[in-house]
Structure formats: C-alpha cells, structure tokens
Amino acid sequence: MKSKKSLKGTILIIIFSVLAVGVIFASLLMSSKENYSESYFYSMDTCIEIIGNNDIKSDIKDIFYETEKIFDCHDPDSEVSKLNKSQSADCPDKLSNAIKRITELNKKYGNGADITIGALTTLWNITGDEPTVPDNADIKAALDTVGYENIKIDGNTISLKNGASLDFGCAAKGAALDYAKETLEENCAGKTIVSAGSSSILLYGDDSFTTSILSPESDDIIGKIHTGAGFISTSGGYHRYTEIDGKEYIHILDTKTGMPSETDLTSVTVFCQSGIDSDFLSTLIFTGGTENIDKFLKDKDIKIVAVDKNKNIYVSDGFDFELTDNTFNVGDKK
Fold it and tell me: CA 307 to CA 298: how far, in whole Å?
C-alpha cells in the first residue's frame, strides 16, 4: 500500500513573478521598479503562498488560521466538528453562510460534490496514514448519511439529519480566499496573488493575469488562460491518491456510489468571481465527467477548462485559452 501527496509550490522572479502551485500557476506581470515579495506559511494541510507589494500578509495568515478553526472537520474543537457532534447548533456567520451558499450550488448544479460526505471521507481515509478499502456494507451505511437534503437551515441555526457529517474539503480553501479578498479590499491593497495549495488561487487587483494549466500527466504546461481578477480552482485526482493492492484510489469520492470517483475527466479548472464557488464547482464538474460537461461550458456564471483521459480539452465559449501543447486537442471530441 502506498499513498502520495503533491502539494508543493515554487516562485520564480525574473522580469515578472510566477506563482507555481502544483496543478496550476499564475503569473502577475509587474514592472522591474515595483517591490514585490513572497510569503509562505502552512495552513489547511497545505502550503499557502502570497505574492504582492502590500503589508497585510500577516492578516491573510490570520484569516487562514481562523478559517481552519471553523471548517476543519478533523479538529475536534472546530465549529464544523461541534456541529457534527451535536447535529444542531447556532453557527457563526461564516459557517452558516458557507453552508447556505453550497446548498444553493447543490440545488442548481446537483450533488456531484456534497459537504455531507463526512462519513465517507472518514471511512476511506484516503489522505490519512492508513487508508483501506471499506466493506460494501459500511459504504452503504455511510452513503445513507450523504445528501445536501440532510441539512436544515433556519437563519444561523443549522441542523443535520440522518446522521449527516460535514466535510468542507471541497470548499474551505475557496472560502478562505473569499475572506482574503475582503481584507485586501478593506486595506486598498495592490496587486496580489494568494495560492491555497495545489487547488485554488485568488488573483487580486486591477490587472490582467495569465494562468498556466499543467498537464495531468506531468508538470508540463498544456495551455494558458488570460483573465482579469478573480478566483481559479482546479480539481483532479492525480496529485492526491492512494494505491492499495495495485489499484489507485483518488481522494475525490463519488456521492452516488460511495467509491473514489472514476470520472473520465483528469482535471477541471474553474474561473469565476467567488472563491467558494470555484473550489466547490471544480470538484462537482470533475465527478460528473464529460457526460455532463456541456451545461457547464454554456454556464454564464463560470468559465472552465476541462481535460479528459483522451487528452481532449473542453473550453467555455469566450474563455481566452491558449493551447501550448499540441498533443492535446481543443474541442468536443467525445
């Protein structure tokens, strides 16, 4: 048995700065006269990286630590853990608002990703020290607790039904980036990039950004997207998985089968104006595979770049994507 995690990032400064974050990286163009600096710290089980010319990096660090105390289901003292244990609680605004928003996304897009998946993630423990393949009976019992319909919302009072257990692994980093953006706005900060590990980035400031998407098969660049400020999240199973008895199991679970997802997509990148939306939807779209990709390509609220196992790339209409690896094909090749 073996497990693998790849969550490293690097920063290269030449004429401009490039923030590398494993699955994706973004470049922030800057003049040679401007004083940009980098900052690193560890939170949410990953390396958080900041690049910019402002003095509020300690504030952003505090934001991530505070967000972790709210959403980390592995911390018995977190707000989510308290809710999971009590099954009903008056929650702080950040937790209740996040639950409300994710429930709205589920109602609009389905339950390809679902924060009530806590019983399943605990059962599989894929990113833990001793992951195992659970018995079918245990998977079925855990599945009975999964479903956003098991969340009852009454103002800030959140109640969980049928033994549901919340896990914000598909949304917490995006939420932290939303809070970071609020702080940057309050402090009139300049151009800034905040990377939450290998999955999500905040691009902040009145500027254009170029974000390169790495190949699911290697660390080579397959293409670049050109955007303004916003949030970018990428989901895929190739950087976090476990191998048991010769079979690979990715960390993203299928809410319908209770098994690790076996989607025909290898990565999904989502760009939009909400951190929690980009984080959550990249996972949801990934699990749905190419069978459901068309409705997301046409969605006006998000832009996506998705890659399938046959090296086909699906790009939203109007999204400024530049292919750099001609071994991949752009367009619907299903």
Answer: 16
